[in-house]
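User: Mind token order:
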Amino acid sequence: MHKDPLALTPEILLLLGAVATLFTGSFVPRHRQWVARLPAAAALLGAAAAGAATAAGEDRTVYAGTFALDGATAAARIVVPAAALLVLLLSVGRVRGDRRESEFAVLVLLASLGAVLLAGASDLLVLAVAYLLATIPLYGLAGWGRDARGAEAALKLYLLGVLLGVAMLLGVAVLYGLAGATRYDALHTGLAGAPEAALAAGTVALLAGLLFKAGAVPAHFWVPDAATGATVPAAAFLTTVPKIGALLAVYRVLTVIPDARVDWRLLVAVLATLSMTLGNLAAFAQRNPLRLLGYSTVSQVGYLLMAVAVAGRGDALPALSFYLAAYAVTNLGAFAVAAALPRLDSLEAYAGLGRGRPWTAAALVVCLLGLVGTPPTAVFVGKLTVFSATWSGGLAWLAVVAAVNTVASLFYYLRWIAPAVAVAPGSRTEDPPQAAGTPVEPWARGTAVAAAAATLALGAAAGPVLATLPASLVR
């Protein structure tokens, strides 16, 4: 079996962190539940550090070829724990003092572990197990607030997750039956002569579960409901971290499907087009900032799927990895602003934010313009590299569609930015702006400012970062 536990150090740290957090929360009194967040934060920091330390190692597989250690896994090992740590930071004000405070951290750790395993799975059975580990904790996170809206969000997430998870398992069974193996290296060989109709059915069924995790069309219906029904920290996690593992898993598994037998590239390109277009169109009419961000994440996955459509090209994987990191920090920054001002439940309620809370308003502007892809933010570089890879990969029409959607998305982001930074003509400076008197949550505000600074720093350092990202996968 080529056992090598040290090769899985980041994953082991996440698992041990979840166990330590659970036990700590079980034995400390309710008013000191914050102590349980310490092992959780330490585990996330340790996992990210271990992932960075092992990123430069030789590409290989471990445990009889069922788990890959390569560029895609290295990206997930760094980005997922870092994103989960930001979620813990922005959640402090919301979860502090709650009797389920430690449970929130445990669910975040377990779902993060599942996302990393999804990205590194090199066997269909490991992929299925990782899907369950990455999905089941999300049900608890969606309903963590124990209110009616959270229960509705959790139920919708559960029903779609079960339905599409069963479809994914059916796809695993079909592909196994066609190839006679579950390991990706054997699948690549065994599927070369498979019947096209059966291969297409198995591929579509397998993608159903992974696209649900990513929040792509047509499995996107849960995203806006979860963004508004769950607590803001849970919504931030649900719309960010699962995408990382799911999209890297889609990229990896599709590279073993012979595109000469099944034109999965066209299928992914069509799904990318539908995701970015429907996400943008639905976001136009939204007045609730969280629901707007929910549809924004649907559109963002459309841009990310562009890199998957040209999977196998030398520049596709680095572009996808960088874009995922850029999207994660920028999206979490936008949610952190919403978490810092939980009483503002409409875009108009942010009126005058720039006068009353200049740092929070600055973070909001940077993150929202970053999601558009405005230089010098990291998402700008991510979109540029993905668009370039798509154009060079023979899908110029998809790059054009994405460019049009990017311009269109500016409209609804500006609808949020405008009231936050505008000053009404003739208004007296001594009049407090609408958002100025709203209490602000300091941890979430600090996280928002840090995320905004990080997206600018990552954009400025994009050249050296992209140069270090590997371009190939190992089977």
Observations:
- DSSP finds 21 helices and two strands in the chain.
- Residues 148-179 form the longest helix (32 residues).
